[in-house]
Amino acid sequence: MRLEKNQLLIGFVPLIDSAPLVAAKEKGFFEKHGLNVELERHQSWSQIRDKLAAGALDAAHMLAPMAPASWLDNAYGGERFVTGLSLNLNGNAITVSEELYRQMVEADPEAMFERPTSARALKKVIANRLKAGQETINIGTVFPFSSHNYAVRYWLGAEGLNPDRDVRMVVAPPPYMVEHLKEGKIDAFCVGEPWNTLAECDSVGRAIVRSAEIWRHMPEKVLGVRQEWADEFPETHVALVASVLEAAAWLDKRRNRLEIAEILSRNDYIGLQTKALLPSLAGIGALANRKSIIEASDYLIFHRYAANFPWRSHALWFLTQMARWGQIVSPVDLHEIAQGAYLPEIYRAAAGRLGVAYPTIDEKPEGAEEHAWMLSEATTPIAMPSSRFVDGFSFNPDAVISYLEGFKRHNLRISLREIADLHS
Amino acid sequence: MADTPIIVLLVDSNPERAKIVEQGLHGAAVVKQAPSLHGVELLGVIERLQPDAIIIDCESPDRDTIENLQLVARKNPKPIVMFVENGDGALAKEAVRAGVSAYIVDGLSEKRVLPVVEIAIERFRMFDALWRDLEKSKRDLEARKAIERAKGLLMQKRQLSENDAYAAMRTMAMKQKISIKDVADNILSVASLFDE
């Protein structure tokens, strides 16, 4: 297949889930598909976004919500991002400082023994603080448009806490989080690995709940490109998606996880010791209570369960949370954005080339499955996992408005009526 | 209403560049600096200063923190938008290439903001050019030193004139398709073997 372009520059942020890109380069999958790729490390998501928007990068490791967010309000100088591949599911956790953990256990010991741990104890701690005339707690996340932000908010909201009033949400880059927690500048954070493991190892904090417990198999990062780029280089796009898809399948095998941990530990990638990277890759996860190891073999999913498929229902769910928390300020057609930003056809072309089974539908109900199940709307049936939300709600992509109406806790800044009118 | 001066917060961990940018903005804006604050501390400074614009190094990890101000907007009545929001994005591209990011308080007129951002871009470029010149002259100086020493060695060991020694090195460089500096380095490293 003739490629329109074969020299590519791809941006990434030093995190465990940059692994599919790193593996595609180091294990020769890019090369196999005719691509000569250079990976460029970046410090912040803003930088990734700006460089991609300005055309200084061909593609990037990207927080999944950044793709649909780029379609809102002409946000990035009119540049819209699209994705044809999800990089992973799960992988984040909420870690609280030792001090806050102690206070939570004191306030409601019973709640702290429940799995998943709810925000019930936290609610009591905050109430105590406010009563005593103290400030509320600071919670760090990595970017306004991130699964981390929505996971924390969902978790707080499920206990009736208002993330914009009852706590102070701040953003800091992942590599600074542990230090901030240690210095008491923040009391808790939600971040990807290896940073929760590191906080546990350094006895700085306790990982109390994994994002996978807030929403089982929550989508995390994607491979993002500019819409214009995708239109201009369709064959290159498919080759790129095929290479990373193959790398993701390689990562799915347990025996390859040690090798990738060693590669990622290099200074041009993450630059931390292998032993800090291995726990989450090996599926041990961060340990909430050092006496008991959480069974977390699904801590990081790179390929199985159709993990790389860009489900439009994922994009839609992120959009509902943007609306719920006041990030959407004028009425937009959420379905239109999800269809624009997520490109299942690109995935299918790449998967077809590799002989990987793929879904034949673009959306599925999210959070509806209590147990593992089979997806029969696929080229061959695909084993799928439980997809439960912590509060037991489920999301029907055909009923966005009623889903949003169902949240008692929200900070909507638009009227749902107006969105509904656009949708009908 | 008379235009009050624009207050710019400059967040740059590179002191030389910060100085150049500050000088450039003199007269166009009141510049406050926050050279080495991160995360929550930086947010505190921003909340206290209430700047109209923030100019920051594109590479800075603190940019993500600043972007979150959009969410703090309810507490802090001034929503922050990226200056690329309106317009064709050409300025944004230019800024990214120069390595500068800017955050502007919503509602500030474009007429007043553009000069500030343009000056910042120009100053970042100027610093970059200065830096590259400096690096190049350092390298040139090192090359010249090595070449002189290698030439001296050849003159001494092979009893060559200065011109012939240089010509010999040039011939070697052409034959091996390497630079004269590399030839000089080779000569010096071989010579150091024999000295020991």
UniProtKB/TrEMBL annotation, chain A:
- List the keywords (alphabetical): Cell inner membrane, Cell membrane, Membrane, Transport
Entry keyword Cell division? no
One Pfam family, short name: NMT1_2
From the Swiss-Prot or TrEMBL record, state where the protein is found. Answer: Endomembrane system
Please give the CDD domains that the UniProt record associates with this protein.
PBP2_NrtA_CpmA_like
Q: InterPro entries, alphabetically?
A: NrtA/CpmA_ABC-bd_dom (IPR044527)
Protein name per the record? Nitrate ABC transporter
Q: Which organism is it from?
A: Hyphococcus luteus
Automatic annotation (TrEMBL), chain B:
**Source taxonomy:** Bacteria, Pseudomonadati, Pseudomonadota, Alphaproteobacteria, Parvularculales
The molecular function terms of the Gene Ontology recorded here are:
RNA binding
Q: Is the keyword rRNA-binding in the record?
A: no
Where would I find the ANTAR domain in this sequence?
127-188
Would I find Phosphoprotein among this entry's keywords?
A: yes
Give the sites modified to 4-aspartylphosphate: D57
> Under what name is this protein listed?
Two-component system response regulator
Q: Which SUPFAM superfamilies match?
A: CheY-like (SSF52172)
InterPro entries in UniProt: ANTAR (IPR005561), CheY-like_superfamily (IPR011006), Sig_transdc_resp-reg_antiterm (IPR008327), Sig_transdc_resp-reg_receiver (IPR001789), WH-like_DNA-bd_sf (IPR036388)
Please give the biological process terms from Gene Ontology that the record holds. Answer: phosphorelay signal transduction system
**Coiled coil spans:** none
Q: Which keywords belong to this entry?
A: Phosphoprotein
* Organism whose genome encodes this protein: Hyphococcus luteus
Positions of the Response regulatory domain: 7-121
Sorted alphabetically, which Pfam families does this protein's record hold? ANTAR (PF03861), Response_reg (PF00072)
